[in-house]
Design goal:
The chain is an alpha/beta fold. The longest helix has 17 residues. The protein has one domain: L-arginine/glycine Amidinotransferase, Chain A. The chain is 24% helix and 24% strand.
């Protein structure tokens, strides 16, 4: 673990995202490019070849929704040949109130995204707090803020115990408690089963979840905190029903084509937008959360902005 700097918080915050639901103020995205459009479905575990023009149109519309919700959209425009999954900007780095931790991707095909994301974050004013290396592998899709001081981590094929140990050493002295739970085998190491494939937090003590595969220790942690949840039916788990991006407490964006989950969220008091993601999400197995790397959440003023 390479640690740099100390507590880098400033009065007019430009970074800090220790929440899944605080208002989304700044977010990094990566528009689909040639690497995504030319991806071999068998190699990348996509369901079909990508139509790049349609994927770009879907992504542009999705980013417009983020802007309308009040977020500053920052583009990761570094070219990464042979990195089709780099459009899923959530995974290479964890952003805390103290800076970013660059991870070390569990999926070998994605390694190399971490340093590029670090450069994007630094240009956006986010300091680098540390970086995982060696055999410590982790992806942020396995990380969920239960509250501002508690980070839940799913251990599985993408995130291992060595990474959890390094993250504890870096974050616990800064007041962040880490809880863990083991993810199931499900369909094996080639598929993508992140913790956030199973859950999203969408409001104060409200989650949307697919329970049959969820780690029991983390479910118990939610119960201790008084969470209630919206259950995703099995057919909609297969179409990324649990992958929901909160843009503010009780306001969220999810992939269209999951009407039962959408209605259950509305019945639970949420305002729900949908986005079209046939190319971005259905084919490539990455939902609204995966497509975003929040770098500032909360009511703080962005420097130079209201």
């Amino acid at each position: 673990m390479r640690c740099r700097g100390g507590d880098n918080r400033v009065m007019d915050k430009t970074f800090g995202a220790q929440s899944m639901i605080a208002p989304l103020r700044r977010v990094v995205v990566k528009r689909p490019d040639a690497a995504f459009g030319s991806a071999d479905p068998a190699r990348w575990h996509y369901s079909a070849p990508i139509n790049l023009a349609r994927a770009q149109a879907e992504h542009d519309a999705f980013c417009d929704q983020l802007r309308k919700g009040g977020a500053e959209v920052i583009y990761h425009d570094e070219v990464l040949p042979n990195h089709a999954d780099s459009i899923f900007t959530f995974d290479p780095a964890l952003v805390t109130d103290h800076g970013a931790v660059l991870l070390n991707m569990g999926k070998a095909l994605r390694r190399g995204e971490e340093a590029a994301m670090g450069r994007v974050l630094q240009r956006a004013g986010v300091p680098i707090l540390g970086a995982l290396g060696g055999e410590a592998h982790a992806e942020c899709g396995d990380m969920l803020w239960l509250d501002e001081k508690t980070l839940a981590i799913g251990q599985g094929y993408r995130t291992n115990a060595a990474a959890v140990a390094e993250l504890r050493a870096l974050l616990e002295p800064r007041g962040i408690t880490i809880l863990t739970g083991d993810l199931p085998y499900y369909t094996g190491p080639e598929a993508c089963l992140h913790l956030l494939s199973l859950i999203s937090i969408v409001d104060e003590r409200l989650a949307v979840m697919y329970l049959p595969l969820f780690p029991v220790p983390l479910l118990q942690a939610l119960e201790r905190r008084g969470f209630r949840w919206v259950e995703v039916p099995e057919p909609e788990f297969l179409t990324q029903g649990p992958n929901v991006l909160a843009t503010a407490p009780g306001e969220c964006i999810m992939l269209e084509g999951n009407p039962i989950t959408r209605q259950r969220l509305i019945d639970a008091g949420c305002e729900v937008q949908t986005y079209r993601g046939e190319e971005l999400s259905f084919k490539a197995e990455g939902g609204a959360t995966c497509l975003t790397r929040p770098i500032l959440r909360g009511s703080a003023t962005i420097a130079g902005k209201s």
